[in-house]
Amino acid sequence: MDSQPSHITEDEAALYDRQIRLWGLEAQQHGIRGLSNEICKNLVLAGVGSITIIDHNVVAIEDLGAQFLITEQDVGKNRALASADRVRHLNPRVVVKTDTNDIREKPEEFFMNFDLICLTDSDLDTMVGLDPWAFFIIIRVRKTPKPNKDEPEIERIMKCEEYVSLEAALSKNDWNQIPEKKLKKVSYVLWGVLILWKFQQEENRLPINNEDDIRKLKSLRDSLITSNGIKVSTISDEFLVMLSLNARAELSPVCAIMGGLLAQDILNALSRRELPINNLFIYNGHVGK
To answer: Taking every annotated instance into account, which residue ranges of this chain make up the domain THIF-type NAD/FAD binding fold (predicted)?
Structure first.
């Protein structure tokens, strides 16, 4: 998302009155698949200054299930180009740009043009490679009482908040030091995500439901457990089969939930008024245990 001028017109103030009151004027100006559709929708409707959609892939039949920015007529077209016009129609005041090149081939200076980068459906190496660009400048609000006045004085303090890198978070190897009772509170889906990322890293693709891939998933599970010195009974063979069946699937309700949460966190970062989530957020959309 690119930076925009530091003023808005009266018409824009009226149009975005609710959003400005919610997270402030500064946030209002800063500025593809099913999940990315939802993120784009929420950010554009919120009125960010501009947004750039980067995708070198083409629309496939499978994409039609959970996406609302493309149609059957777009199959075979570049995803970014196919969805851009419909994104613009959501809010003509937002500048929507497209880039059909592979983000993995972009030079470092390319990312200096943006206030914030959001990756979806990316492989682990790409996420780790772009992680050094992930930092936030946060304005924390502190209220102090005014002498002889009922209302407190609001003091804004600029602070640079550095987050642990994704690579550092994934290198955690002291799980065996965590009490078993506390470890049980860690979602078993986390282990599934780590296994999927490792599979994708080694095979350069996501798994499918066949004997070879399930055997590979079991091997990665056993390696994960052994290397961390933990016992995770929830990573059952049945769970690994479910991973192979759902690794490529997208469900519209899940995309809506995750897209809304992620877009709100992006707005928190751009507004510099609230701290984004400083952790791994995992949503378990599987019904049942």
So the answer is: 31-284
The residues facing 78 across adjacent strands are: 58
The stretches in the chain having pLDDT less than 70 are: 1-32, 132-162, 229-234, 285-289
Q: How far is CA 238 from CA 70, 192, 205, 256, in A?
A: 34, 12, 21, 27
**Residue 247 DSSP symbol:** T
Same domain, 18 and 124: yes
Expressed as residue numbers, the domain containing 228 is 172-203+207-246
Beta-carbon contacts of 66 under 8 Å, excluding residues fewer than 6 positions away, are: 33, 34, 37, 250, 251, 252, 255
CATH of the domain at 33: 3.40.50.720
Question: Which has the closest alpha carbon to 125: 109, 98, 102, 97?
Answer: 102
The pairing of strands 50-54 and 95-99 is parallel
Neighbours of 279 (CB within 10 A): 9
| 118-173 residue pLDDT tens | 888 888 888 888 876 654 433 333 343 444 556 666 666 666 666 778 888 888 87
Name the burial class of residue 272, with classes exposed (0-12), middle (13-18) and buried (19+) by CB atoms within 10 angstroms of its CB: buried
Nearest C-alpha neighbor of 63 from the set 82, 39, 44:
82
Going by the DSSP 8-state scheme, the letter that residue 75 receives in this structure is T
Rounded to two decimals, what is the model's pTM? 0.68
